[in-house]
């Protein structure tokens, strides 16, 4: 299962279970939020590690840039679109 598929499942789980949502949102208060997030994910049965999560975001961003205008200098800047960790937490905060 890809990182994106795992994150989708985690997000659905957090929407369905307030305790999971609370734990995930609480990582913002931790000294190392990304490490805490990944630890919780592993406790929930999802083998997600910080570098895999970062690499997945960077690869997704690179694919997006390559797909627009030939991926050259005129490609649009996609601010924050490569940070799946922050995007998931933002979605949980809005819910």
Task: Give helix and strand order, one letter per element, not per position.
Answer: HHHHH
The whole-angstrom Rg is 14 Å
- Global outline: globular
Average the pLDDT over all residues and give the rounded result.
83
Strand content: under 5%
Provide structural commentary.
- The model has no long low-confidence stretch (mean pLDDT about 85).
- Helix content is about 65%, strand content about 0%.
- The protein is an all-alpha fold.
- It has one domain (about 5-95).
- It has helices at about 5-15, 20-25, 35-45, 50-65, 85-95.
- The protein is globular.
Relevant terms:
mainly alpha; 5 helices; single chain
List the helices and strands and how they pair.
Layout: H1 3-16, H2 18-26, H3 33-43, H4 50-67, H5 84-94
Helix pairs in contact: 1-2, 1-5
Summarize the structure.
This protein is mainly α. The protein has five helices and no strands.
